[in-house]
Amino acid sequence: MPNIEAIQTALRQQKIDAWLFYDILHRDPIAYRVLGLDHAMAKRRWFYLIPAKGVPRKLVHRIESGTLDSLPGEKILYAAAEELEKNLKKLMGRTKKVAMQYSPKNSIPSISLVDAGTVELIRAQGCKVVSSADLVQLFEAAWTPEQLDSHRAAGRVIDRITKAAFAEAARRVTAKELFTEFDLQKWILDEFRANGVVSDSAPIVAVGPHSGDPHYEPQERGSSPVKQGDLLLLDVWAKTQAPNSVYYDITWTGFLGEKIPEKYAKIFSIVRDARDAAVNFVAENVTAGRAIEGWQVDRAAREVIRKAGFAKYFVHRTGHNIGQEVHGAGANMDSLETRDIRRIIPHTCFSVEPGIYLPEFGVRSEVNVYVAEGKAEVTGAVQTELLRLLS
């Protein structure tokens, strides 16, 4: 059940008349999570309007009339297209400014879930459609204390598994065993199962040029062998199986040799400094009570890499929001792929993960930053030097 009173308070604060939820064929997962709809039928269009004041209203098809029965409010029915348009006017009433899962020019793709035709349909009712991005942050991205606990619990497990995975790689190399990126990935997944954590997809295990591909996916066929002298990158994310648990997501790198080559150490140090610049920017501003936006955090990290001469090799945003999905619905640390102007608000968490991706190898260093009231903190272990995995 959504917290109608809290949503209405937020609407009044943001000077928006209503928040309109819409779906067909389960295209908008945000709507289902915010409204607490588990198994709603959605083969036909439904609308749910929460006004800044007054009682919510719902518009559903006669064949699926019970779709929104779990939600409070007046029910309006339709069947024919003409009846839909007629009753849509009744649904909207005197609403002039309405928030939807919409982002002008698709500037925040994770929020742009309502199709252009439906936006046109609502505008035809005399309404100005604005983005629900800031509302989504409040009611989708902000964590409860229990979710923060689940994140920390997952972090303890993932930090331990990641450390053990580096040790396992070193053991196999020392023993001269033949194994691939895919084999080590499978070992990590076995550890997930043994330790009760789950993930939406498998971790990244990458050596050589594959480490220069930010989203490399090891496959059983075509994975590179892991051997002495390799730079090994591990990007590992998972969450506990507790209800509404949230993710923990990190990236570490290590060298499978006794002496780390200068080229690897140099790139790692630049990436580490960029990561720390972004984390410090967040911590200092949050402590001082200054509002900051996602794009500004990205800029803080990107400027370090630019000054070092590697700007063109930092090809993705600095970080993403973290929630029940590893890429959550809150502000991203992004001034490259988009310009994310959403404010970073209390009780949200995001990754800080700058990287430099060269043709022959790549380095990324990723931590998670949780913002509380008046402070921000990294929630897990922090890599300060490139790991030397053989002695």
Write out key terms for the chains shown.
17 strands, 20% strand, alpha+beta, Creatine Amidinohydrolase, Chain A, domain 1, Creatine Amidinohydrolase, 391 residues, five-stranded mixed β-sheet, 9 helices, six-stranded mixed β-sheet
What would you say this structure looks like, in words?
34% of the residues lie in helices and 20% in strands. The protein has helices at residues 4-13, 29-35, 81-92, 116-123, 133-141, 145-174, 181-195, 262-288, 294-307; strands at residues 18-23, 46-51, 57-61, 74-78, 97-100, 128-131, 197-198, 204-207, 231-240, 248-255, 321-322, 348-352, 355-357, 362-364, 367-372, 375-378, 387-388. It has a 6-stranded mixed beta sheet. The protein is of the alpha+beta class. α6 (145-174) crosses α7 (181-195) and α8 packs antiparallel against α9. The protein folds into 2 domains: 4-140, 3-Layer(aba) Sandwich (Creatine Amidinohydrolase, Chain A, domain 1), CATH 3.40.350.10; 142-388, Creatinase/methionine aminopeptidase superfamily (Creatine Amidinohydrolase, Alpha-Beta Complex). It is elongated, with a radius of gyration of 24 Å.
**Tell me, what's the shape?**
elongated
Q: How many β-strand runs? A: 17
Q: How many H/I helices? A: 9
CATH level 1 class label of the largest domain: Alpha Beta
Q: Could you state the order of secondary-structure elements as H and E?
A: HEHEEEHEHEHHHEEEEHHEEEEEEE
Per CATH, which architecture of the largest domain?
Answer: Alpha-Beta Complex
What would the CATH topology of the largest domain be? Creatine Amidinohydrolase
Structural class: alpha+beta
Largest sheet report? 6 strands, mixed
- CA distance, first residue to last residue: 56 Å
User: What strand order characterises the main sheet?
Assistant: 4-3-2-1-5-6
Tell me the CATH superfamily of the largest domain: Creatinase/methionine aminopeptidase superfamily
Mean pLDDT over the full residue set: 97
